[in-house]
Amino acid sequence: MSGHSNWPEWIYVTVVIALMAWVGAEAWEAERLVEHVPEDAKTIIVTGQQWFWTFEHEDGTKEIGELHVEVGKAYKFEVVSKDVNHSFNIHDYVVLMDAIPGRVNTVWFAPDKVGEHDIQCREYCGLIHYNMRGKLYVEEPSH
Amino acid sequence: MTLELQKPRPIWQIMFSTHHTDVGLLYLISSLTFLFLGGSLALAIRAELFLPGSQIIADSMTFNRIFTVHGTTLIFLFIIPFASAVGNYYVPIMVRYKDMAYPKLNAIAFWMIPPAGVLIWLGFADFTWYATPPYSIISAPGPAADMWIFGLKILGISSVLGALNFVVTILKCKHPDMSIGQIPLLAWSFLSSSLIIIVAIPTFAAALLMLLTDRLGVSGFFNPAMGGDPIAYAHLFWFTFHPEVYVLVIPAIGMMYEIIPRFSRKPIYSYNSGIFAFVMLSLVGFSSWAHHMYATGMSFTEKTVFMVGTLAAVPASAMHVFNFVATMWNARIRFSTPMMWAVGGIALFFSAGAGGVVNSAMPLDFTTHDTYWVVGHFHLFVMGTIAFGSLGFLYYMFPYVTGRLYNETLGKIHFILAFIGTVLVFFTQHILGLYGMPRRIYDYPPIPEWIAMNQIASIGAMIIGTSMVIFLANMIYSAGKGKLADTDDPFGLGGKYYYPFEAKNPSH
Q1: What are the boundaries of each domain within chain A?
Q2: Do B297 and A97 touch (CB under 8 A)?
Q3: Would you call A28 and B371 a contact, using CB atoms and an 8 Å cutoff?
């Protein structure tokens, strides 16, 4: 039992609570912006299955293991899975969304530079999970 | 407490005893055995990841089995039983009762652990400690997965029985002269963590049964092919296992509450805020489970609710840190081995907590989720905080249990090596996560930054491994041949400060 005055602890706890409130408010604001999908975003259906990624563009073309997109445009990924849970990840663009059988999860991005980036699976999905990788090619618009 | 070991007895007398210190000794020995077993698996993982390509583990299936059993072993067969060992030794003495409330139940709870350990180790399942469906239902091979499920089932029952026993011992068997506001903070930590176990574990027990019937094909709770939903499992699992994080960490904090005032030769700065923070943690621990699931397609509102619930745990944790620092402030501290572990543990607890704030902030979580950042983050808790608190407490109770002193120099070397190793492994893993390396991977592409960070982490792991060999040698040698301890004041603190050993205990 402490008989002494406890004001340093109260100040400290108040500071911690204020810090957490600030972190929470910033995170809330940032996430709200990040989740707002632009209206002109093109849809790409991303299918995860053991152990590769398939991409289907709006015009019906399909790619396996590789994804070609154009710089400066917004894309909306509809992430689905054919078997077990996967997680679609382009780390360089902080794109991360679980592929869960029976669900369609959406995430979007707008590449701002031409280049190549790694695509990987970030949710454990079995034997070849470590090598469920792909490549993202961000290219100049063709027309 | 020392009496039991100083009179030589046949081993079966200890094995079939229901006395709390005997059961505590059994818990202690089995949990340390599993610490070394699970730890050696960690070394295998780190050796494999030292370079890209296959190093010492032949294939990814073996690797997946190794990290699954590593996690399961250290959480369920080391951390929880070790806390029970400490609780068995200290809680009855601290509440001044002759034994645990239900001695036979206590022994039963312990004896459920070895068969569960055998099931988990003989099965060697591969679906991670999280047993995520639908992988665990449709893809995980054979009897291994079912043996894991049964093993966990048994361990769940064991911890509920143990928790009931602690709650009844503390609330109903404490000496009538003591109010609940007078029992030491270590006993309070067992009261809080036991109450969490009783509320949280049944949910996972139900989920395990559903997982089993799903595997047998007679139900489809979590199997999308039969109309089920894997996300339901995630909720049930994390409803148990986020509070479980506090079940693991609260007793370790309680152990630090025992060590730090003693070696600072000062009363604890604020006993009441310690209790308040324990109670707060056990309540808000239940408001944050879905922060493990931001990337499963949760709505913005759900994510916000669970972020707030998670951040709410920070002030309570920070109160513990404040309490420790304020106790050590201006104190005549004696840095014996237990004190070094406790102080190191607090430093790492603070770092782990700071990293946790990053995870809980929604947009940042998408950078760190399921990468090595998360591995580093929770290992700073389980290794840096919980194992550090536990090992420190082991050194602290060693003279009381064996009647002998451990070798102080070797104890300090153990701490210094383990601390350096822990920083090298788990801080590096945070950086590795920011580079984007996913967790649970057997092999990785030869990206120079990934290789460098993995090598630093592997070297750190080998340093920890070395320190644990020193620890084992010290414990075995000192238990038989160490200097005899003055059990009134084994650490030479002046004897003015209360040791639980001196508490009046009617049957001793």
Answers
A1: 1-36, 42-139
A2: yes
A3: no
User: What pairs with residue A62 in β-bridges?
Assistant: A56
Are the C-beta atoms of residues A37 and A108 closer than 8 Å to each other?
yes
State yes or no: pLDDT of A89 exceeds 60. Answer: yes
Question: Is B295 in contact with A101 (Cβ distance < 8 A)?
Answer: no
**How many structural domains are present in chain B?**
1
Q: How far apart are CA B282 and CA B440, in angstroms?
A: 30
Asked if B296 has any chain A CB less than 8 Å from its own CB, the reply is yes
Interface contact flag, A122 B270, Cβ < 8 Å: no
Instruction: Note the pLDDT tens digit of each residue in B298-330.
Output: 999 999 999 999 999 999 999 999 999 999 999
Handedness of CA B479, B484, B488, B490 (dihedral sign): negative
Closest approach of B196 to chain A, Cα-based (Å): 24
Contact B307 A27 (CB under 8 A): yes
C-alpha to C-alpha distance for A134 and A54, rounded to whole angstroms: 10
Cβ contacts (< 8 Å) between A94 and chain B: which residues?
363, 366-367
Question: How much is the pLDDT for A13?
Answer: 93
Q: What is the dihedral sign for C-alpha B49, B55, B57, B59? A: positive
| Residue B229 amino acid letter | D
Statement: the pTM of the whole predicted model exceeds 0.90: yes
Task: Looking at the complex, report in whole angstroms how far the Cα of residue A140 sits from the nearest Cα belonging to chain B.
Answer: 26
Other beta carbons within 10 angstroms of residue B425's beta carbon come to 26
The interface predicted TM-score (ipTM) is 0.93
Rounded Cα distance, B235 and B339, in Å: 39
Structural domain A42-139, CATH architecture: Sandwich (2.60)
For residue B314, which residues of chain A lie inside 8 Å, CB to CB?
Answer: 16, 20
CB B161 within 8 A of CB B197: no
Of A16, A98, A103, the CB nearest to B295: A98
Give alpha helix (H) positions in B265-387: 271-284, 300-311, 313-328, 337-360, 362-368, 372-379
Please count the residue pairs, one from chain A and one from chain B, whose beta carbons lie less than 8 angstroms apart: 158
A108: phi then psi, degrees, rounded to nearest 5: -135, 160
Here the tokens at position B114 are: 């070895």
Q: Are B414 and B471 in contact, with CB atoms under 8 Å apart?
A: yes
Task: Note down the domain range covering B83.
Answer: 16-502
CB contact under 8 A, B443 and A127: no
* Interchain proximity B135–A85, CB inside 8 Å: yes
> What pLDDT shows up at residue B504?
42
pLDDT, chain A, mean: 93
B379 interfacial to chain A (CB closer than 8 Å)? no
pLDDT-flagged residues of chain B (< 70) = 1-7, 495-508
For chain A, what's the residue count? 143
Whole-number pLDDT of residue A2? 45
Q: Which amino acid is at B322?
A: F
Measured CA to CA, the distance from residue B497 to residue B502 in angstroms comes to 10
Whether B324 has its CB under 8 Å from any CB of chain A: the answer is no
Pair B306, B334: CB distance under 8 Å:
no
Cβ contacts (< 8 Å) between B300 and chain A: which residues? 31-32, 35
Can you give the CATH number for the domain in which B372 is found? 1.20.210.10
How large is the average pLDDT for residues A113-141? 95
Element (H, E) at B238: helix B230-264
